[in-house]
Amino acid sequence: MSGKAKVKTNAIRILDSHKIEHEVYTYDTKDGVIDGQGVAAKLNQNPNQVFKTLVTQGKSKEYYVFVVPVAGELDFKKAEKATGEKKIEMIPMKDLLKVSGYIHGGCSCIGMKKQFKTYIDKSALDFDSFMFSGGKIGVQIKMKAEALKDIIPVEFVDLKKNYD
């Protein structure tokens, strides 16, 4: 069963405590499909409106969070330009829980162990709302992208890889 639900995660508690309007959606994970495109399909959402959260590390050893549409890929050159880093790489999956407090497939840009500078692809602003992980596999949050500025340090920049 997929749809709107009453679930509480750190990310949802933070939104609630700041009284930020949002909707929570859940989806069945028994089939093992937890990738972004699969989640968008399960929730009958536009894959350009459903975003994934990526945790990276720069050459400086600083961590950065990038939030991009599940239908696309992070352009590392654009990420480096946005942060001023010479090189940015994905952190090893084995380090994700230790660094962010989240596991792969349930990583949210809200409620990490430590709040890292967050960059969201500017295409999120093209929609009334966008969707991202609620901080647990099987949970998604839908809200206005601009509202994130009230709770996390976020910049909206061009991050998607272009294939033209």
Q: Could you tell me the mean pLDDT?
A: 92
Question: What structural class is derived from the secondary structure elements?
Answer: alpha+beta
Rounded to the nearest angstrom, the distance between the terminal CA atoms is 38 Å
The number of distinct β-strands equals 9
The general outline is globular
Percent of sequence in beta strands: 25-35%
Biggest sheet, spatial arrangement of strands:
5-3-4-6-9
Helix content: 10-25%
Determine Rg (CA atoms, Å).
Answer: 15 Å
Low-confidence stretches: none
**Biggest sheet record:** 5 strands, mixed
Number of helix segments?
4
What string, H for helix and E for strand, traces the elements in order?
EHEHEEHEHEEEE
Please sum up the structure shown.
This protein has 164 residues and is an alpha+beta fold. It contains four helices and nine strands; from the N terminus they run βαβαββαβαββββ. The mean pLDDT is 92.
Report on the architecture of this protein.
By secondary structure, the protein is α+β, with helices and mostly antiparallel strands. It has 4 helices and 9 strands; from the N terminus they run E-H-E-H-E-E-H-E-H-E-E-E-E. It has helices spanning 10-17, 36-42, 76-83, 96-100; strands at 3-4, 23-26, 51-58, 63-69, 88-90, 117-121, 130-133, 139-143, 154-157. The strands form 2 sheets. Strands 5-3-4-6-9 form a 5-stranded mixed sheet. Strands 1-2-8-7 form a 4-stranded antiparallel sheet, with no helix packed on it. A hairpin with a 5-residue loop joins strand 7 and strand 8 (139-143). The chain is globular and about 40 Å long. The protein starts with a strand and ends in a 7-residue tail after the last strand.
